[in-house]
User: Which sequence fits this backbone?
């Protein structure tokens, strides 16, 4: 198992945000965490990347405990978090943002090669390479956030709400990119409010409600589940 999360409890002050959450990922999978706002999806990702403190429970990455590993060392292990709201550096150029993603690899030649690969994958970023991140459209910023994450050569990519605030046609593009990244060998843990899109590309999924996993299964089975349809897929 690549990632195992067992009985995780996380608090924000007095608020019990994750109540015994467990899930796992096998190498090469796309696994989706779906659920309403405040269900604990983003907190689950932050726990994996050590951005929130875990009160109890265990996280294992390739069999090694991850719970007490500091965030910068989580990155060095090959786990990259593309946060909700993109969080690019607005005053830095596209190229400078990509450089920030590559800071764990100190090889200038490799950086140039990797950057060229990003421009192949995201032609819009090539056109905007000298522009500051803050002047890009929402879709371009999301592409930049993903590209910046890929510059670190992740083995496990944590994607938090990649479709948020984007027009439907851009959402399609972003999900095509996610599918493509996975086909090229990167395992993906995807948090997404657009349950329809998330389950359409995922192998498996977990449904979170108020800090608990209430359903899990193959993505196709969850799509057909009447409870999931009613709550998250507009009641088909």
Assistant:
């Amino acid at each position: 198992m690549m990632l195992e999360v067992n009985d995780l409890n996380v608090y924000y002050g007095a608020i019990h945000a994750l109540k015994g959450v467990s899930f796992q990922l096998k190498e090469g999978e796309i696994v989706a965490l779906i659920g309403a706002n405040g269900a604990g999806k983003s907190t689950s990702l932050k726990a994996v990347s050590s951005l929130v403190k875990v009160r109890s429970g265990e996280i294992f990455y390739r069999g090694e405990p991850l719970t007490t590993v500091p965030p910068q060392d989580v990155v060095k292990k090959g786990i990259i978090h593309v946060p909700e709201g993109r969080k690019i550096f607005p005053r830095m150029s596209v190229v400078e943002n990509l450089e920030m993603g590559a800071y764990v690899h100190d090889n200038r030649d490799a950086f140039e090669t990797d950057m060229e690969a990003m421009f192949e994958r995201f032609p819009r970023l090539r056109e905007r390479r000298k522009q500051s991140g803050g002047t890009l459209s929402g879709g371009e910023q999301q592409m930049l956030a993903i590209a910046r994450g890929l510059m670190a050569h992740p083995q496990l990519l944590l994607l938090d709400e990649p479709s948020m605030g984007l027009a439907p046609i851009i959402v399609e593009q972003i999900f095509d990119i996610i599918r493509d990244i996975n086909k090229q060998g990167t395992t993906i843990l995807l948090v997404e409010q657009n349950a329809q899109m998330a389950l359409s590309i995922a192998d498996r999924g977990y449904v979170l409600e108020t800090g608990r996993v209430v359903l899990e299964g193959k993505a196709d089975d969850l799509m057909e589940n009447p409870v999931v349809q009613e709550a998250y897929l507009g009641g088909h």
In short: Strands lie at 3-12, 15-25, 30-34, 56-61, 64-65, 79-82, 156-160, 187-191, 204-209, 212-218. The mean pLDDT is 94. The two ends are 34 Å apart (CA to CA).
